[in-house]
Specification:
This protein is mainly alpha-helical and 195 residues long. The protein contains nine helices and two strands. Strands 1-2 form a two-stranded antiparallel ribbon.
Length: 195
């Protein structure tokens, strides 16, 4: 049976994710981190919006496409450096994902749409871009937050949680409150939401 263009694109993206040299343990097996991350993104999209368009599903899967190739420390370790790094990554990841879509048989319009979603264009005015933002925030809270918070003081963590919460829609908030967290992480979230 011939693979659909969606299946071809997902396969190509997952092959790229699988090249990530960073590994995480998932059920006793090493898995490339970005492959793990992209699967989490797809899982949360399914919870958030099970009827998502192919373009949103592809953008979600490609959100961190080959991100490890441009490490954070390749830019100044400052707020400005962080924003420059993120801006560059969004543009690069959008271009890489759009190319995969074209090579998989998608139209230029669809490929450009995937890129626009990855770049989070029109965030507050585009429902699909808001869903992508929600999903990214949910994966951060579910998969990265507890490790991240160990390296920062409480005030900074609460500030980051408040900013994360502010980026999310009501549906994103509902799903975030369902995430299983340690007692300490749950306390920090509670403090962030009551301040």
């Amino acid at each position: 049976m011939t693979a659909s263009k969606f299946e071809k694109a997902i396969h190509a993206m997952d092959e790229a994710h699988a090249l990530d040299p960073r590994k995480v343990q998932i059920e006793g097996q090493d898995e490339p981190y970005e492959l793990h991350y992209s699967k989490k993104m797809s899982d949360y999209l399914q919870k958030h919006n099970p009827n998502a368009t192919d373009t949103l599903r592809l953008a979600i899967r490609a959100q961190h496409l080959r991100r490890w190739e441009v490490p954070r420390d390749s830019y100044a370790m400052s707020k400005t450096g962080y924003h420059l790094w993120r801006t560059y990554l969004k543009k690069r990841q959008a271009e890489l994902a759009s190319q995969i879509c074209l090579e998989s048989g998608y139209s230029e319009e669809d490929a450009n749409r995937v890129g626009a979603l990855i770049k989070k264009e029109n965030l507050k005015h585009d429902a699909e871009t808001q869903i992508l933002e929600d999903v990214a925030c949910l994966v951060f809270l579910d998969d990265q937050f507890e490790e991240f918070e160990k390296g920062h003081d409480e005030a900074k963590i609460i500030n980051i949680l408040q900013k994360t919460w502010g980026k999310m829609s009501d549906r994103g908030h509902e799903l975030a409150l369902e995430i299983s967290m340690s007692e300490h992480a749950r306390e920090l979230v509670s403090k962030a939401l009551t301040n």
